[in-house]
Design brief:
Layout lengths: L2 E6 L4 H12 L4 E8 L3 H11 L3 E4 L5 H7 L6 E4 H9 L6 E4 L7 H9 L3 E4 L3 H15 L5 E3 L2 H10 L7 E8 L17 H5 L8 H9 L1 H14 L6 E5 L5 E7 L4 E5 L5 H9 L30 H12 L3 H17 L7 H12 L8 H16 L3
Parallel strand pairs: 1-2, 1-5, 2-3, 3-4, 5-6, 6-7, 8-9
Antiparallel strand pairs: 8-10, 10-11
Helix pairs in contact: 2-3, 5-6, 6-10, 6-13, 9-13, 10-12, 12-14, 13-14, 13-15
The structure holds magnesium ion.
Length: 382
Amino acid sequence: MPKRISILGSTGSIGVNSLEVISHLKNKLEVIYLTAHRNADLLVQQALKFKPKAICISDESKYDDVKGQLNNTSIKIYQGREGLLEIASRDDVDIMLNGLVGASGMEPTLKAINASVDVALSNKESLVMAGEIIRKALNKSKSKLFPVDSEHSAIWQCLRGEKLDDVRNIILTGSGGPFREREISTFYDIKVEDALKHPNWSMGRKISIDSATMMNKGFEVIEAYWLFNFKLENIKIVVHPQSIIHSMIELKDGAIKAQMGVPDMKVPIQYALTYPRHITSPWERLNFFDCGDLTFQKPDFKRFPCIDLAFRSLKKKGTAGAALNLANDYSVDRFLKNEIKFPEIPKINESSLENHNWIKNPTLEDLKELDIWVKEHVKGFS
Ligand code: MG
């Protein structure tokens, strides 16, 4: 029996890569549900190729278009946020791959956990927003989280077979993004196109900006904290510009285990979908004689204040991660629309983190109210 898969965000970068993985493992993986935000044409193409039971288009204005194009099929079509949450709640799948972008991915993660469906998690914002709530939900459910983020997949692979007691540090690697060496005094001149050019990984727009501010690495610290249950002081960041080592663990005897490969998201996606197996794949492989020198640097917290914001939010817990994450969603959106400058992203994020109404044990309702406040707060900057 093939594993039954649903993919949230199937027309985004992670979704498209996931469907490539599924295409090459047709007899092992079967698509049951697909959801997309607004790319109606690509969703329709995917639906015709993979023949899921149902799909959802979140942007309701595209519903008639999708419906019209799939008129002659038996595929059920949902729409809107409600349709997305309906599909995320289904328990007739084995794994839900959450490739959504930003805070909107958090509730679908919880829906799948509550339905006892395993979650292949690319949407790290779920854990940044609601790490504690998700951990509690996991304790009550049969569901497991499988990391898709390349660093966390690497750590997950390194930890296999080790006693957690023997592990001293988790070491997250990060490329440092496109502005690792740019003169800081020119950061106000950074254009959207410059920030979207990641040196190694090809990714969606939001995460490319997060990589340029290194907010992404900060969020990955938070993600690692909730996924692997390590103390904050045992989660380290090492800048490794070549992105060949995807992350490492340091054991108590000084041994280091690193997971390496070409930077290709299909590898961690496939591992999350075929765990615990490493199945033969057709993608490009690492050639040691081509990849050049591997180098390492300290992360520069002054250049990239967003990293420090992530550590601060994790020390505070409660609503701090959600306030930071929501602010970052909105500030990145405003940067992408050319409404604010690049160095204002960390300033806005910090202001939301420091000035929001902090709650120790927030409910989902509290997070929704916080969302309204942060959205207004971020609008106030110009
Ligand atoms: Mg990553």
